[in-house]
């Protein structure tokens, strides 16, 4: 049963996740739906919206496709099987990044569709960030003179900005977005839970546009953003949905009034006059939203100089961008001349006059861009250039991120190898001291060579190539036994331990070792070999697990927790080898004992998988089986857990050197000290050449 748009917004249907869908009308029947969990509901919602193409071409980039492509296709298959059929699903994914947004990719999509006999009754579904949205949207606009497009934005930038409004385009050698069309999507599905796979930098980049929207039109939106930067950056569902809803509602309203950008819509370009000029000079090292943040602050100064804005508003605006870690000062190396030259070709200009969106307070602006006297602009830009700053994220090329991810994977494999090698070496050490010593010597020579390479690495690091951190969770020791524990071990029941590692405030970085029945195995040995009882004392699980910390930043807090499943409450203690920046090697750090945890959610079959916290933010727990007839078959464990945190040093330029060169030593330390076999930290750098 199809409801009208108005009815729908009064009583929006719940999603599978149980949250309310926010709906915003744009132009004609084009509308935006916002809710976590929408992805799975796309097939049914398309159907009830009357969109029933014969073929649906899912266009995506390879990164997004690898995260969400299968899920989306599966949703269509499930829907088709329950509803007696659905559209023929085709899938096309091109390499990620701005460099794909060109004529060649568009032609390739068209040829793919033609060879698959897509006719006018087809539709395109754009699954991805702004690049996918612009490109797939433009392809839909011209394929057989226009077929419907559905947008499924997956980046913050796309959800807040690019997917709404119908602008589509591609880049040509003469410039960005120069060839394109207006083509309104039928429906835009914004599912904020999909943002969880973006890096923080990418999340924040898009948020810059929401702050901008707050500054030009909505003081309340601005205040929300200024008050809750941490929660919003950590993708708090409620706040994020609120921010998306407000920002998108403004964009929709503006687009409805001025679809073809004759006046009001151009005000959305606040911060973009100066921002675009900077971007033209530093892209792709800095991202669009980062340049816009700098532009917004500078253009607030401009509004003040032109007499439209009070001086107090400027620090308020600056602080808000800063709270998100966005740059507010230009990067070093820019000149007034070059920036003015770039500004002269801005789309908003009329003839030679530069035009800018002028804000009048935090939350309001003049409803069309105003001409800006050249001297005034020069004054503002030269003042801005007096205080350059290296951007908070360094100089990482956005388009290198994918390559980096690949390298990180390689490095992770290398990490495993390293861990194995150190174990072998350690074995050698006990086998033959002399032999191992020689090998260690060779190792050290090799590492001196590496030190030189590390210098190169340092340079690379300063250019913004983020180091990656690998964590090897070798094992834990000193886990106290209870009588019941031993008893149940002997009986071969559930004494399972596992370790969970995550970066504080980044739940998506969670890694989990396998679940080990170490004590049980020992008990078994005891039965088989008649080993003496001390073998039980202190179950020492050895997980031998290595994983790479996603999205690592210096200063991050790594949290380790060891969970143990037991029938009673246990005392668990744990030691950790850690290497502090004060150069002292601390052999072990006792863990703080925590009270028994509440019931959790992990089933035995899920143990060992990387899992996220449940909705009450509980860590994963393991369910156990019971033979008690009165009890349900699955019971949740009441075992104990301990947790420790390791704060990675905050990096200063001088420290980087120390950090990197000490890192070399660190490996020898690992090799020498692995004997204790606890948790080791290893830092890995993206370029496998260095190994
Ligand atoms: N049409 C408009 O009105 C409009 C407005 C603003 C920007 N744009 C355009 O948008 C583009 C920038 O958009 P963008 O920042 O989304 O770039 P993008 O599409 O290149 O996405 C950035 C990166 O994030 C990855 N990614 C996207 N979603 C992900 C997810 N959920 N999980 C993991 N990785 C994910 C992508 O693969 C890509 O590597 C530019 O081309 C710009 O011109 C258009
Ligand atoms: Zn923008």
Termini separation comes to: 62 Å
Detail the poorly predicted runs: 1-14, 396-409, 450-468, 478-495, 518-527, 531-539, 565-615, 617-691
Bound compounds, each kind once, are: nicotinamide-adenine-dinucleotide, zinc ion
Give me the side-by-side strand order of the main sheet.
Answer: 16-15-18-24-21
The biggest sheet amounts to:
5 strands, antiparallel
Q: How much is the average pLDDT?
A: 70
Q: Percent range for helical residues?
A: 40-55%
Overall, the morphology is globular
Number of helices: 20
Q: In total, how many domains does the architecture comprise?
A: 3
Radius of gyration from CA coordinates? 29 Å
- Give the structural class: alpha+beta
Strand segment count:
25
Classify the beta-strand content into a percent band: 15-25%
Structure description:
This protein is 41% helix and 19% strand. With 691 residues, it is α+β, with helices and mostly antiparallel strands. The protein has three domains: 5-195, 3-Layer(aba) Sandwich (Rossmann fold); 199-395, Dehydroquinate synthase-like, alpha domain (Up-down Bundle); 401-690, no CATH class. The strands form nine sheets. A five-stranded antiparallel beta sheet has the order 16-15-18-24-21, with helices on one face. It has a four-stranded parallel beta sheet with strand order 4-3-5-6, with helices on both faces. Strands 1-2-9 form a three-stranded mixed beta sheet. β5, α5 (130-142) and β6 form a beta-alpha-beta unit. The protein is globular, with a radius of gyration of 29 Å. The termini are far apart. Mean pLDDT is 70; it is low at 1-14, 396-409, 450-468, 478-495, 518-527, 531-539, 565-615 and 617-691. It binds nicotinamide-adenine-dinucleotide and zinc ion (ZN).
